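Technical note accompanying the year-one report. For the benefit of new consortium partners, we illustrate the data format agreed upon in the data management plan: each record pairs a sequence with a structure-token string. No post-processing was applied to the example shown here.
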Amino acid sequence: MLRGAIPIGRVAGIRIAVHWSLFATLVLLASLLSMSLLPGQYPGRPAPHYWLTGTVTAAAFILTLAAHEFAHSAVARRHGVAVDRITLWLLGGMSELREEPRDPQADLRIALAGPVTSLLVGAVLLAVAYPAEQSIGPLAATALIWLGTANLVLAVFNMLPGAPLDGGRVLRAVLWRHSGDRLAATTTAARSGRGVGSVLILLGGAQAILLGSAGGLWLMLLGWFLRTAANVELMTASARHRLGELRVADAMTPHPVAAAAASTVDEFTTTAAASSHHRLFPVVDQNMQPVGRITLSDLARTPPGERGRTTIGSLARPLPDADIVTSDARLADVATTVLLRPGLDLIAVVDSERHLTGIVTATDLVRVCDRTALGLPLRDHPTAPGNCG
């Protein structure tokens, strides 16, 4: 999950968020269209005409990316897979699913939904562009042709057989159905994704060096992302295998020391924090419901003269909805959905009334994975109230 994404609304109940890096993509595409493609095809027009057409076309392409991801999410929900949100960012978009598909058939349909949508969108735009040239003008028609072609390229590119691309998901589904072994299928798809990423890095490097094209740098960035994401897939598959059917209750630290959002820095540091040897704490409101997290480093950055009037709530980092779970949730689903930075993030565990009952940190997850791999009991002694991290 990308942190720093800005929620912008819901479509059919699915949350949509935009990461700040998406604006770089919008500016880059608008500049490319307005300063190169459109003037090259139809020179002599006023510059504002190019910029208006290019900016609208770039924004429309972002919308088609959202449609691609929405198709994934809609089919996932139809198959009973919970969707946290859709996030649009620098390199496109991602549907953030809270759990894995339950069978290879669902996995295949969810994976194919996005590319099929992009193919349909591309085909419709191209079909409309040519006959509409007389009515909407050649400049707008060229923009439609570019937009349709871009969607076709998006569909084809996403079908490359390597996770986390859609083609990698298709490969996983096919291997999973053939062998019945989801772990082996996921591992093969992720390794294929690393290979695809390496090829893109090499091609991008050759394009940048031999042709002097800046597009090669973009291709290298995309390849690097694919390799990184494929490595995460491998680690995720290993974690799922180790965690099996364990629940959050098996890993959580119960009754953690919590910071009240309304208390001041001085009040917290002279009471609860003073008696704890941990540095990461959940933040709760007056009803003991988790609203954020805070570290001793966050508190230390407050000038001493302001600690008596600065509240914990004003310093706390927000806690996303995905980071709040119940104790009976599958630990594997939680661990592979929420990325925990050691010492900075935590998962808040709540009861049916959303009251804080425990926390899970990166330290807890590593401990459970290691002890499970060694065949050791999950807890070698009763856990006292406190925090990990």
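Partners are asked to follow this layout when depositing records. The radius of gyration is 24 Å.
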